[in-house]
């Protein structure tokens, strides 16, 4: 689904309001579990995103009518898994309900994909520790010659001893 909507970003993350919370006219394209933003239909067909924004992933997203927003009519809310929150305004009630249905059907189809559910609770930044490595400690500090710097670190600590 695609069409012109007004967009307003409310939240940047779970506890942080967005820096720019003004309404913007954007051409939205919903495909394959993601929502892309473009200036207009022409830039969407050419693949030129609105201000260089990458399409947002709709995995773990919630889409609903924004009953608490009273300043404009026909507004729905899209809350993403990473805490971002967007408001979208459609031109009428029918278009708003059509967008909500399309986004929710895109959510349900992306939840069925094998890579959608992440059963990992740890960050993927550190490699797993192998029990056969024999290293009982953590990282060992070494100088450029490859010698252990543990004793040097103790001698030159951040806070010097008072004499």
Kindly list the characteristics that best describe this protein.
163 residues; alpha+beta; PH-domain like; 3 helices; 8 strands; elongated; PH domain-containing protein; PH-like_dom_sf; phospholipid binding; PH_9; PH_dom-spectrin-type
Task: Describe what this molecule looks like in 3D.
The structure is a single chain. The chain has 163 residues and is an alpha+beta fold. It has a domain at 2-110: PH-domain like, CATH 2.30.29. Helix content is 19%, strand content 26%. It contains three helices and eight strands.
Care to give the gist of this entry?
This protein has helices at 41-46, 93-111, 150-155; strands at residues 2-13, 16-17, 24-31, 34-38, 56-57, 62-65, 75-79, 85-89.
Sheet having the most strands: 8 strands, antiparallel
Write down the overall geometry: elongated
Please identify the structural class as seen in this structure.
alpha+beta
Low-confidence stretches: 113-123
User: What's the level 1 CATH class of the domain at 2-110?
Assistant: Mainly Beta
User: Roughly what is the average pLDDT, rounded to an integer?
Assistant: 79
Count all strands and give the number: 8
**CATH topology assignment of the domain at 2-110:** PH-domain like
So how many helices? Answer: 3
Instruction: Quote the distance from N terminus to C terminus.
Output: 74 Å
Radius of gyration: 25 Å
The CATH homologous superfamily of the domain at 2-110 is called Pleckstrin-homology domain (PH domain)/Phosphotyrosine-binding domain (PTB)
Strand content: 25-35%
Report the CATH architecture of the domain at 2-110: Roll
H/E series: EEEEHEEEEHH
Helix content: 10-25%
